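[audit] Reproducing an earlier prediction to check determinism. Same input, same settings, fresh worker. If the tokens differ from the archived copy the diff job will pick it up downstream; this log only records the rerun itself.
[audit] input (266 residues):
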Amino acid sequence: MDITYTDDGNAVFKMVNFLKRTLSDFPEEIRGTAVTPATEKLFTVRAEDERKILEEKRARAFHHAVAQLLFVTSRCRRDIQTAVAFLTTRVRKPDEDDWGKLKRLLKYVKGTLYLPLTLEATDLGLLKWWVDAAFAVHPDYKSHSGGAFTLGKGIIMGGSKKQKIITMSSTEAEIVGVDDFAGHILWTNYFMEAQGFKRKETIIYQDNQRAILLEKNGRESSGKRTRHMNIKYFFIKDRVDKGEITIKFCPTEEMVADHFTKPLQG
């Protein structure tokens, strides 16, 4: 990893050589480039009897390339995180469609080798998180969580992950999404305080008003569609009550974490 500190206080991260090695390790030549990491059909999977499973050699190559890209996403390439998160769910038995999706992602990587992650802290006491969820987008009807953390400019910590349970509404998926990132959110609080910084506020931005109401009020705001929810998903209410976290509404068009829940185009 190459790290550059600029005169205006920014930190710039790149992993150009590692990405070049990832491309050269792939058994097929990647021709051309792509403008996005994935198409809108990223989460689409054929029926089991229609799939063409990769032979062992290409399956190993698929697994290797996805592991290399996963290594990069957690360090400086947040832009490919959603595509990589989906492909990690396919490594056990990848098919021809998965191979095509991986090649599409590698085309995007080829065209953006020098794209940096630039970080800038404008207020070390104000911790901002965006958390979102895409409802029932996986073939088994599970939803997908996305989260992003910043101190001003650039995503310091981001995540894109398949949820572990099937939810019954987009509101429930959003609450599960917050639970998926609760540990990371609280850790950032404790880490900044341990470095000697006085924390003013930790804000979680969400674009679902119903989910925000439940996270603030817990079961008191539950209706017929949310009474079944496990009490563990109201853990966040306890942290809101203690003043460790503030939940605020964010319009969907300003939802940063939307990039970590679906393959946005354009």
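[audit] rerun output stored. Observation attached for the diff report: DSSP finds seven helices and nine strands in the chain.
[audit] end
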